[in-house]
Design goal:
Elements: H1 3-12, H2 26-36, H3 43-52, H4 57-70, H5 84-103, H6 109-113, H7 120-126, H8 143-152, H9 154-163, H10 171-174, H11 186-192, H12 197-220, H13 230-244, H14 247-258
Helix pairs in contact: 2-4, 2-8, 4-8, 5-12, 9-13, 9-14, 12-13
Bound molecules: zinc ion (2 copies).
Organism: Cryobacterium algoricola
Protein name: TniQ protein
Amino acid sequence: MTKAAALATAREDLELLPDPDHNLSVEEVKLLWSFLHGDIMIGGIRQRLREHWGLCPRHSWGHAVVEIELWQAGAGLRAGHQPFEIGILYEDLLETMIRKLSDSRPRSRMSVLTPRGICPICRDLRGPAIPGIGGGGYAGSDSAALTIEANEMIHMRQWVAETRTLWHACPSCASTRDDVDAVLCRRHILQRGSLTDEDARSLVVKLSDTRELLVPLVESMTQTGRPSTGLADASWIHALGWFHGWTFPLALAQCGAESPL
Ligand SMILES: [Zn+2]
Ligand SMILES: [Zn+2]
C-alpha cells in the first residue's frame, strides 16, 4: 500500500472533529473544493450519491465545512458562508429516502438504509497522486491556505451556536434520552438492525418535516427567496445529522460552549 493510500484508509474511518488530529487534510479540502465546483452536479455522480446516501460521514460533514467556510459569495441575506449546495443535495436525498422507506417492508428496511458503493472522495484519496497537491489548488487557489481556513470552522461554529437550542440530536449520538422529539440517526438504526412499521412511519414524518424546512432554507439563499427562520436554519444540520450521525456538530457545539468566539 502506498503512503497516500494508507493515509486515505486511515482518514475515512476517522470522524471529522474540530481538532488537529481529526481536521481535514489538504488533499481532502482540495477534492471537496473541486467536488463543490462541479462534480456534484453531474448526473451520474448525483445518482451514485443517492445510492451511497451522500458521501461517507467524515466527508459529508467536510463537504459542509468546505462549502460554508470557503464559499464567500452567495445570494440572499447572508450573501455567502451558507449551505446552499448541501441544501439542494439533501432535499434530493431526503426525498429519495422518504419514498424508499414509505415503500419498504420490514425485511428490506436495513438494506434501504445501507449505503451502496463508495464515497467518491474516499475513492479519489485512495487513487494515484492527485495533481496539484502541494502546489496550486483548484483554479489556482492555494490548497494549504484554504485548508487552514476551512479547519478554523469560524462560520460553522456560528451556524451551530445559532441553531443548537433547536436540535433534536440522535439519542445514541448524544448519549441522552431526554429529548422525546429526537430519532435515532441512520447509522444507529443500522447498528440496532431493525425498524418496525410504526417506527418507519414516524421516521418518515420526521424526515418529511426536515425536508419541508430545508426548502425555504435553500430558497433564502437565492435572489428571490425570503429570509429563513431559525427552524429552517437548523434543518440542514438535522438532515446531515440523521444521515451521517451527530458526532461532529455535537463536538463543535461543545467546544463552542467551552470557548465562545
Ligand atoms: Zn469519504
Ligand atoms: Zn446516532
